[in-house]
Design goal:
CATH superfamily: Acid Proteases
Number of helices: 3
Strand content: 25-35%
CATH topology: Cathepsin D, subunit A, domain 1
CATH architecture: Beta Barrel
Mean pLDDT: 88
Radius of gyration: 19 Å
Shape: globular
Number of domains: 1
Number of strands: 18
CATH class: Mainly Beta
Helix content: 10-25%
Structural class: alpha+beta
Distance between the termini: 65 Å
Length: 237
């Protein structure tokens, strides 16, 4: 059977020009053979739009969900492409089980809102993490929805190929003991992309932020928030 391709009701473009037009799909177990792990990224990715500093980027960003022990993060490559300002953090940086040694990491200077999109490119659900780390080395993803957001919004991945996009868990509407799985109204997962130049076939987007670097990130975020608060107060005076 042919792949169940789904096109948006209005043309949508990926933020990476080389990826062209946005296409979704209804994945089935038998379709896995069409996307070999050594050639394609086989992790589910969803269509989101990012908003920072009051500026909304129209292009679609690929976002993956990693609620195991990952932090919400964006790659330096994508942050540069979007023109997002970031500040490098002190301390020991980050560690990754597939890389030797530690790596530098930064934090976005301004808050970033993540808008989940439907098939018409409309925002149907918004998440604003307290911290967004900037991953200097990774080439295996663009934007990662980490454990902080997964826990805060009670997000679960679209296991079972239900084709309902990002799903959140909510208290049972009838008062039962089990929670309800509620789709947020977003599009199903994006059609798998080919591995990018320099992207390893064996990879992980999970990295550990060392304690001293984490503490510096919190300090930077608090200081930036205080600056924004003073700026807003002055603007209202």
């Amino acid at each position: 059977m042919p792949l169940q391709i789904i096109r948006p009701s209005v043309p949508l473009q990926h933020v990476r020009p080389e990826e062209g037009e946005v296409v979704f799909w209804h994945k089935r177990r038998e379709d896995a053979r069409a996307f070999q792990p050594g050639e394609y990224c086989t992790i589910d990715e969803y269509a989101v739009r990012v908003v920072s500093g009051g500026l909304r980027r129209d292009e679609v960003v690929r976002a993956r969900i990693n609620g195991c022990c990952a932090v919400t993060s964006i790659t330096k490559e994508l942050a540069d492409l979007l023109g997002l300002e970031y500040l490098e953090l002190s301390g020991q940086g980050t560690s990754n089980m597939l890389r030797v040694g530690r790596s530098p990491v930064s934090i976005l200077a301004e808050p970033l809102s993540i808008e989940v999109l439907d098939l018409a490119g409309r925002s149907v659900y918004t998440m604003t993490p307290q911290l967004v780390f900037v991953d200097h080395n990774s080439k295996v993803y663009d934007l990662q929805i980490g454990r902080d957001l997964v826990v805060a919004h009670r997000i679960i991945d679209d296991f079972g190929n239900r084709h309902k996009g990002i799903i959140v868990s909510r208290p049972n509407a009838a008062g039962g003991p089990e929670d309800d799985d509620v789709p947020v109204g977003g599009a199903p997962s994006l059609l798998p992309r080919r591995l990018r130049p320099g992207e390893p076939a064996l990879s992980t987007s999970t990295f550990y932020v060392e304690q001293d670097t984490w503490e510096h990130a919190v300090q930077v975020a608090q200081a930036r928030a205080a600056v924004r608060a003073r700026r807003d107060t002055a603007a209202q005076a």
